[in-house]
Amino acid sequence: MARQQLTIGPAARAAGLTRKAMRVYEAKGLLPEAERTTAGYRLYSPDDVELLTFIRRARTLGLHLDDIREVLAIRSGGIPPCATVRDLLDARIAELDSAVAELLALRTTLAETRQRADDCTDEQPVTVCAIIEDS
């Protein structure tokens, strides 16, 4: 029995993606080139939809396309990619921790600057704004 093939719209809905995202993933080599009907419509198998769902989930976790490509290459070699995924997630967590630390430092600077702004009046002779000039 032949497995049901889906055109791009139904496949996109099933994977939770847009058609544009699917075409990008195909162009980037994450998704094999789709079969085509005689009219030129792309056809996707249930395996393709499963792969697209995996890619969407990985992107939701913040993995980059190169990271996903690496995981898929390991998987296609018949090796479970769990160790690689753990390493990639650890790296992503470290990136987020660094970004959070930078944002917290910026927030502290902004709050301190705002506190000093209470002493600033519009009557002071300045070229732009003493609040920012004194930061």
Automatic annotation (TrEMBL):
SMART domains: HTH_MERR. GO terms for molecular function: DNA binding; DNA-binding transcription factor activity. SUPFAM superfamilies: Putative DNA-binding domain. Keywords: DNA-binding, Transcription, Transcription regulation. InterPro entries: DNA-bd_dom_put_sf, MerR-type_HTH_dom, MerR_fam, Tscrpt_reg_MerR_DNA-bd. Residues 5-74 form the HTH merR-type domain. PANTHER family: HEAVY METAL-DEPENDENT TRANSCRIPTIONAL REGULATOR HI_0293-RELATED (PTHR30204:SF94), REDOX-CYCLING DRUG-SENSING TRANSCRIPTIONAL ACTIVATOR SOXR (PTHR30204). This is DNA-binding transcriptional regulator, MerR family. It comes from Pseudonocardia ammonioxydans.
